[in-house]
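Dear support,

Our group has been running a series of protein-ligand predictions, and this particular one with magnesium ion is the one our PI (initials K.S.) wants archived with full inputs and outputs. We had some confusion internally about which version of the output was final, so please treat the block below as the authoritative record. The input we submitted was:
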Amino acid sequence: MPFSVREGINIFLAGFVPTENMRFRDFELSFKVKGDSAEEQDEKKKKKDEDDDAKKAKSAYYLYPEMTKTLGPFKLKVMPGRFAPSECVVMLGQNGTGKTTMIKMLAGLLQPDEGSEKLPVLNISYKPQTIAPKFEGTVQMLFNLKLQETWQSSLFKTEVLMPLNIEGLLDNEVQNLSGGELQRVAIVLALAKPCDIYLIDEPSAYLDSEQRVIVSKVMKRWIMSSKRAAFVVEHDFIMATYLADKVIVFDGTPALDTFCTSPESLVTGMNRFLKMLEITFRRDPSNFRPRINKGDSQKDQEQKACGNYFLMEESLSKLKKKDQMTKDKEEEEEKEEAAAVEEEEEAPKKKKKKGKK
Ligand SMILES: Nc1ncnc2c1ncn2[C@@H]1O[C@H](COP(=O)(O)OP(=O)(O)OP(=O)(O)O)[C@@H](O)[C@H]1O
Ligand SMILES: [Mg+2]
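Confirmed final output from the archive:
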């Protein structure tokens, strides 16, 4: 007996066919928003501790300046930004709005237009959007050549290699890998490289839906535990929602004249992005899967009327709280920054006075 689309998708996610009493996957794929489950609460606490540590360190955040980039008829304006270690900034936008262009500028592969302030040199690990391997040899040989022993640590094995099912690919020729296998190998190469900032352009391309969920979990956990920052370009809305601590939205006329926002909090950024597309989301009550509301349905109209494009229902209040905490934290950091600058400016004056005495 065939199932409805909704039932079919939910059965696929649950990994269990109730009418047959048959389990076909050991675990359920769930879309609970960060902060909902005990596991996520732990992650949140861990992140808070890490944030506190990061706060103590003087170089607790990175800055990039306002920039423009012209490529033939295309012009991108990047608003200045600030991001912290352990933070994942997701870049959202239509095709041709300049996401890859911005990532390449952060990677130092493209120079901003003359007149833009210079970008600081960042210690990065970059996964490009298009992967065309020239390497002749096996996956293991590629890892040994590019990563030396970093990919052999037991932590990396359990946190990355095993969940991404890479060990079965080690003896395969790189040239013969399928699109999804190649993507997973490229993600491993990016995550294993020592750096301060990951720049990952479209990690979910070529991956099936199950692999996308696994890859986003692996990336999120690794970024947080390694205390590195990450910029991730992502078209898959579910993956983007799962990964994002902050969001950069690309807007304007694709291929011609576009701009992107500074990194914003998750709810603000997602609302901006969905408002641009005139789409509202709600959550499926059984597994929290984000679902698009039918245009002009009652829910769609209600959510649009109150500016709540990014669903959440019961989770919205939690996220709003989280957003407020992020904003408070940023304000606090800005105050500290201003105080530090003032102190630095005052120091030479005090020295001078002392010298006079
Ligand atoms: N070297 C170049 N010369 C001229 N135009 C370019 C060059 N590189 C990119 N462009 C143009 O700049 C625009 C932005 O490209 P970019 O690759 O940054 O978009 P994107 O947001 O990453 O798109 P997608 O989602 O399709 O990957 C596109 O219109 C592209 O054709
Ligand atoms: Mg791109």
